[in-house]
Amino acid sequence: MDDPVVAASDLCASPRRDSVVNDMAIEVATVNGSGSQSANTVLLRSIFQMGVPVSGKNLFPSNIAGLPTWFLIRASKDGYVARKKEVDLLVAVNPETAREDLAQLKAGGAAVYDEPFGLAHVRSDVTFYPVPLDKVVARAGGGVKLRMLLRNIAYVGVLARLLELDMSEVERAIHRQFDKKARALELNLAVARSGFEYAAALAKRDPYLIRRMDATRAKIVADGNSAAALGALFAGVTVVTWYPITPSSSLVEALIRYLKKYRVRPDGKATYAVIQAEDELAAVGIAIGAGWAGARAMTATSGPGVSLMAEFAGLGYFAEVPAVVFDVQRVGPSTGLPTRTSQGDVLSTAFLSHGDTQHVLLFPGTVEECFTMAIDAFDLAETLQTPVFVMSDLDLGMNSWTCDPFPYPERPIRRGKVLSKEDLDRLGAFARYRDVDGDAIPYRTHPLAAYFTRGTGHDEQACYSERPGDFERNMERLQRKMDGARSVAPSPVVEGRGARVGIMAYGSSHHAVAEARDELRELGIETDYLRVRAYPFARQVHAFFEEHERVYVVEQNRDGQMASLVKLDLAAELAARVRSIAHITGVPLDAGSVAEELAMMEKQ
Amino acid sequence: MDRSSPLVIPSVNRIGLAAADYRGLKSTLCAGCGHNSVSERIADALHEMGVPPERVAKFSGIGCSSKSLAYFLSRSHAFNAVHGRMPSVATGALIANRSLVAVGVSGDGDTASIGIGQFVHLMRRNLPILYIVEDNGVYGLTKGQMSATADTGSRSKAGIPNELPPIDICALAIQLGATFVARSFSGDKSQLSALLRAAIAHRGTVVLHVISPCVTFNDHEGSTKSYAYMKDHDEPLQELSFVPAFKEIAVEYSAGTSVEVTMHDGSLLRLRKLEEEYDPRDKIGAVSRLLKAQALGEMITGIFFIDTEATTFLDRLNLVDGPLATLPEEAVRPSRVVFDEIMDSLR
Asked: Which residue in A has a C-alpha nearest to residue B80's C-alpha?
């Protein structure tokens, strides 16, 4: 056991193949609460600093400490950022799951594991690198107390050697991570070096290498929740409400940090308020109240919270009050898988609440869009005077993505049709719900002119009315207003032209689809691609169905919710063109699964 | 009782508005409904206090009481929200615009049943709002089901006695942090008027619990929320007199028999003790007295608790002057320099 080189060479008979450069999936299998997150971030950033596109996904349990956690790092010279189905390189540091983890490793892959696990005899088709992590830590002077934490940075040092990462980049990443903690910085540097030195004795037998590229120079690494928080900050949010719920909490927590830093005046006075409410009913109620009184108000939640917000969402729609709701989707039904990703709230949120209610949904597909659509959402909510839901998800929201820097918002804030005191004096009269301009959007005040806002039936003057004509006219106007949203919400992105087969996707499924299209092309299946970015659907969505014989709607839920939603919008002959590829496992969608299923369906 | 109030209300108040400027639409509630009296008292109190109607925002949930927002102050903003959730809407509106004077009207169902969660947290925050609970012990709009404030043994119109104990809204409010808690009866015009005027002068959460009989579903023999029952059992703890800051203090009381409270705006609230031991500045004593009343089946009214020093929720937020709602773009969108700094930190 003392000589890892012997152990590795004894058990791995396969010869060294051609190198695989800048294209691999690394899985770190560890234990929740063991402090692996910083080490994994260091590894991710080291690869990023080498100029290689990289993304990181944390598959974590609903638990504070003790249950298994997996961190997936994908380096891809082609810029693919979706989860890769196969694992090329495993780092097994969780004894509970080590054998199961090993079973998932691709044939020809490699496994770094904590030597005492004794895994080397389990498979013969992979390379093993046993590393006595505790010894590596001890060699660097890491005391027993910190050993559990430092084991993480030890495997980073080992991987740096095996992948031929530039150690100076690893050290730079460690500096960045532990910048403000001198003792932690020193120890982590020492243990990483110790791992790097230890691995010098390992005979490299796997093909995976990281080589310098120049594909990340202009890029940033960010998660969607922080991006959405920045979007809200630059949208000029003034009232933020929330009730903590995974996976949306980090959005509000990031926003609070930014607001404290950038929106407090020198005299200590804030240009915003953040309210941690007693539940999601109150969170959305405060947002609606604030939106009514003229604030740019938002809340962030996930599925269970959205369910609780239903009644207020209907009030917002019917009384025409702006508010922005970020739904960072997780797996339902019910409590579901609280720490896993899904696109399972699409259908219920589109029509959230009773009666003929309909909402504007935005579907950010990238971290950058989490930023831009946050700004769009506030502008749309005030322009249309209605709640707007930003449908992010856990994968997009909580994971680390290499992405383009965000654009500074050039467009001035759009506050919609708000009458000033001067307007009111000039007009003399004001009818809250009158369609003055023919676009079904009435004028409001912040409140300057008194009117009675209500969830009960009302006429143009906002007076209670049970008259059939008043009710029908108002509901038809609301329908026209939502129809108008089709052309003002972010339009779909269409790629490719002339193929007979189309793919429609949205949100974080985009990344698996983008890669699947390349795989399908290799299989001889040409596809055009429409990425939906908002509901109600823009006209381009209908056109896409007109132009394609079949359109596969790819999404991460069981029932094909987007497929159903688009069918409601399409004429019967076009609805017949909808094909659904819908899966929900809690694990982010991968390209291989999409390509495989689509190819199979095309054969039929 | 209300000795300092003028016997004749002047035709215009100190901001030149007539009582009619504080009126609302014609009530659609039942003739004789206690809520209609409360609406009139609210309008009159705001008129007498010279509060500009345009600065008032009215809030309510769902129910007969919540409908009554329409029956006073047509010149004010109003938000008739969803059942039991008025506190959150009012909270949001006040954060957005601190210059609003908030008046919330709720009922026993809207507050003590479906809305108890939001009520509890409203109290905790001490949001500056006048929160009026018009309590008739029944659900009127759904035709007479018992509510959570109905007294044990009180009989429904069909003669069925209520078995569960009532929720004491006032005791709960005091315990949870409300800073002005009082009870009155819709039929006691002078007490209710004085309480309302003092409540308007208070800065913090006011809970004004008004027993307001339902003439259609809960005004019969055997009900403990009927006009007859209240007239027989109403036991005021104090005689109230309220002198607004803008008026001369004209009435003197002999020392020792009254408690004087100077309000946030300089107004003076004088309470002539009818119960010698009772001091409404004593929180523990207040809750204790209410529990005792419940045990003895007493219907006490008056000011149970007042604290004029507590910090309000809006003060805690440390907001810039002027409403958040109308901050200009340059105040709420950080500069490109800040933006570039943040982008650099993500590289």
From this structure: A454
